[in-house]
Amino acid sequence: MKKTFWIFLVTSLFLLAFSGLASAQSPNPTPSDDEVNAVARDLYCPVCESTPLDVCPTQACTQWRELIRLKLSEGWTKEQIKQYFVDQYGARVLSAPPAQGFSILIYIIPPILLAIGVFIVFRAFRAMRKPLATVAQETTTSAPAADDYLRRVEEELKQRD
Fold first, then answer.
1. 73-to-8, 10, 48, 61, 139 alpha-carbon distances in Å
2. Integer Cα distance of 59 and 126 in angstroms
3. Which of 30, 96, 136, 154 is the residue whose CA sits 20 to 30 A from 66?
4. Count of CA atoms in the C-beta half-sphere (13 A) of 147
5. Helix (H, G, I), strand (E, B) or coil at 119
6. Tens-place pLDDT, residues 106-151
């Protein structure tokens, strides 16, 4: 009886130890909706116009979110999944275009236009603040021609009297 007890105890401990190893080697747990939406938020639906993949109600987007869930459970990173969708549907599925090639103009042109706009507004305000004395000097330089014209008009009026 004692021998049977020890065999039973050793066998139970052995099975208990290996069951723990088997559960530790189970596949990755299913990713949560938050993890899936964290990836889907950076992607746009290839079918719908301007709709992020995480909020798109179409059946196709539901399938793509499940594909993201599958890829995450297989151990893919966020960048690998985004690259997979770019390979399948093109760069238009990305929420932000890549900063390479022709798309780099999207990142360069707005700051340049902003700088030009600030320069134009600065010059306009500077011109509005110009002192009146400077404006008066500019008008007096053109005044002799106006005075000459007025003088001739007055002379003609006097001659008619």
1. 38, 36, 26, 18, 80
2. 59
3. 96
4. 6
5. helix
6. 778 888 999 999 999 998 888 888 765 565 565 555 556 678 888 8
pTM, full prediction: 0.49
Rounded Cα distance between 103 and 145, Å, is 58
Type of residue at 55: V
Q: In 3-state terms, what secondary structure has residue 52?
A: strand
**Which contacts of 66-70 are long-range, i.e. CB under 8 A and separated by 24 or more positions?**
68/36, 68/39, 68/40, 69/30, 69/31, 69/36
Q: How many residues does the chain have?
A: 161
Residues facing 94 on adjacent strands? 43
Gap between the Cα atoms of 98 and 33, Å rounded: 26
